[in-house]
Amino acid sequence: xxxxxxxxxxxxxxxxxxxxxxxxxxxxxxxxxxxxxxxxxxxxxxxxxxxxxxxxxxxxxxxxxxxxxxxxxxxxxxxxxxxxxxxxxxxxxxxxxxxxxxxxxxxxxxxxxxxxxxxxxxxxxxxxxxxxxxxxxxxxxxxxxxxxxxxxxxxxxxxxxxxxxxxxxxxxxxxxxxxxxxxxxxxxxxxxxxxxxxxxxxxxxxxxxxxxxxxxxxxxxxxxxxxxxxxxxxxxxxxxxxxxxxxxxxxxxxxxxxxxxxxxxxx
Amino acid sequence: xxxxxxxxxxxxxxxxxxxxxxxxxxxxxxxxxxxxxxxxxxxxxxxxxxxxxxxxxxxxxxxxxxxxxxxxxxxxxxxxxxxxxxxxxxxxxxxxxxxxxxxxxxxxxxxxxxxxxxxxxxxxxxxxxxxxxxxxxxxxxxxxxxxxxxxxxxxxxxxxxxxxxxxxxxxxxxxxxxxxxxxxxxxxxxxxxxxxxxxxxxxxxxxxxxxxxxxxxxxxxxxxxxxxxxxxxxxxxxxxx
Lengths: 267, 241
Prior knowledge:
The complex is a heterodimer.
Chain A: H1 2-9, H2 15-31, H3 37-40, H4 46-51, H5 62-79, H6 82-88, H7 91-97, H8 102-136, H9 142-149, H10 152-166, H11 171-188, H12 191-197, H13 204-214, H14 221-224, H15 232-258
Helix pairs in contact in A: 1-8, 2-5, 2-8, 5-8, 5-10, 8-10, 8-15, 10-11, 10-15
Chain B: H1 2-31, H2 40-45, H3 49-70, H4 74-87, H5 91-104, H6 112-118, H7 130-137, H8 142-158, H9 163-170, H10 184-196, H11 200-214, H12 219-240
Helix pairs in contact in B: 3-4, 4-5, 4-6, 5-6, 6-8, 9-10, 10-11
């Protein structure tokens, strides 16, 4: 598994990774001065209330939020092509002829992609914290810096989702479908919150149908919500991330187990 | 076999954990929201388009039904009934309401929604022809007729009726002596159609009626004046009490 992860991490030596890293760091420096995300939004909006309910004293920084999105985009772009490329180049046949199980292969790919995303995000955070220190002469409180790291949890299902999709499609299609899947998941993420605010029974069968569709997507809004730093919500967020990642990876393993790796396969 | 059993042992608790944690996080997210700061429009804006449309419909339908149940005045009841019939997507409910309005309240302006609904509705045995509709319009004063004409023209547009047919439909307007400025819209359209389809007598007559319309107040002005008169008439009576 780790050997496969290391193989994936070789992508970090490619110029594409350095270009993405360079862009991410420049953007982190540009956005570092932005106010916390709750102050960027109208206080009456539902999203603003979800992410800032005065439960924790450490707000989510706008720069961290933007860099999370950018890191996910770049990481997804690099990671989505991994498995389809192995299949199209027959590298997967060579790898699976060694004493490596398909599950280990897939977990290695997942781990590799997770590390790529995290390295992009964490290095962006370092730039944000450093540029704040350079610009104001003050260091962010430790808890606030820690709060920004919570978004790391969102990378767990995100990478699982990308790996799952890339097991079903080709390189380019994996990137496009991952992006569309992400857009759909964001558009449905407010559904349960909004439905809970409506009078009982008013959503009717539309609400039920909406919920069925909603459960097909991860809800990334949960990662941005305001909660006490080391409370039950954090614990549940961890369980949510892990369970969702396992579900995605199980689907991916199922696909790898039943896939035809010959040149004439559909991938 | 062992592998499959192991997989089931993994899948079931994972899904259970997923649903439990999702429900918990959802409650936590909802708990962050101050209901006093959130109105219905904001909530609806957060819903996906497909769901928003259905939810908005159900809210509006419930509001209308509740308002209808609470209404005491017959005028108000009929207005709400016509609105509900117009708004309802339940064909059975719609037909029942419009049949009632058409059958029992055809002398009331609120029945116009029903008449417009059945206007040229070829798939219905209760279809209303153009002459029948014109006959119906004659029952009402021009103040009420204005909306009926507008609704009927909208219906014709929805049916994608040809422009010459539309022009023929509007011909009775030329026999009216307009009492409100608002009618100039219809005559402007008749001028356009008359000119386009080379009917100069229609275009000229409509043009003359546009000038006639300009001499009168608009419907809103007349209604406001009536309301003010009513209010001033009630004021001394109220004071007396």
